Amino acid sequence: xxxxxxxxxxxxxxxxxxxxxxxxxxxxxxxxxxxxxxxxxxxxxxxxxxxxxxxxxxxxxxxxxxxxxxxxxxxxxxxxxxxxxxxxxxxxxxxxxxxxxxxxxxxxxxxxxxxxxxxxxxxxxxxxxxxxxxxxxxxxxxxxxxxxxxxxxxxxxxxxxxxxxxxxxxxxxxxxxxxxxxxxxxxxxxxxxxxxxxxxxxxxxxxxxxxxxxxxxxxxxxxxxxxxxxxxxxxxxxxxxxxxxxxxxxxxxxxxxxxxxxxxxxxxxxxxxxxxxxxxxxxxxxxxxxxxxxxxxxxxxxxxxxxxxxxxxxxxxxxxxxxxxxxxxxxxxxxxxxxxxxxxxxxxxxxxxxxxxxx
Length: 359
What we know:
Layout: H1 10-21, H2 40-55, H3 59-65, E1 66-67, E2 87-88, H4 94-107, H5 110-128, E3 142-146, E4 155-161, E5 164-170, E6 176-177, E7 181-185, H6 202-214, H7 217-223, E8 224-226, E9 249-250, H8 256-270, H9 275-286, E10 294-299, E11 307-312, E12 316-322, H10 324-327, E13 330-336, H11 343-356
Parallel strand pairs: 1-3, 8-10
Antiparallel strand pairs: 2-3, 3-4, 4-5, 5-6, 5-7, 7-13, 9-10, 10-11, 11-12, 12-13
Helix pairs in contact: 1-8, 2-4, 6-8
């Protein structure tokens, strides 16, 4: 077991995890790339994609898709079927849909983009299961841009619908925030029909369970925060979140091979984003004292029974639950305590702008 008195940087555990996984690319991350210096190009690509999308819109469409950056709607996110503002896929031409998806591709890894599309396609599965086409519609995913896409002033982009809410905030084209980032799946496993066996969020479930089952009895007693799983992610769709309690087991109480599983699990969430964005997050995590990263579990450890986990660090929170519809309905989210919707980047941006103008 790693001594809790050690202040190990995450870099050490990342290296350990890569070695234990048997590859420089962690297991289950076939499309991940080695960590590289953040390039301006990928952020500029999102800017170019957003500009192209806006140019393609009619005035009526533009009035739905474009908001002032300060509009309160920017923080009004959710992951349930509901009335939304923005421009839905349903009201776009085929060319406009491709341009909208181009913005999304610029912000997500290949795996992240495929996962998002799979989540959208699950609406058709729910239709096949007898649910209303009015609410289960793969064309009811809304695209919104807040502010004018620019290299010099802040702007943001949101893609949102049932079980998907992706929020990108850009403060100059070299600084980007990616939280809140919500991916869900209903059903978590398709159990009949042409898509039988499909699991959109398999790694999120399987590696989480692998970690809890690897724990010895005393460790599991530390990690287990409740015999019953909460019905949903604890933080819901709050615009701002705070650290949760109880924290569970600290990473430094894990054996090295268990810590490697934890890092693999974190990488599942990190690897959803385009590599420059994921690399920026990894760099921040590598500066983290791993003693402050914790893992908590609630509910059953058996597949098919309700369960929940969370990973928490000084600056971030990952939540996962699978409790609804007979534990066949997953919700996952990445939150940043100070960085949701780019709050930390915006604060520094406005502070720097004030200094440059002498006030």
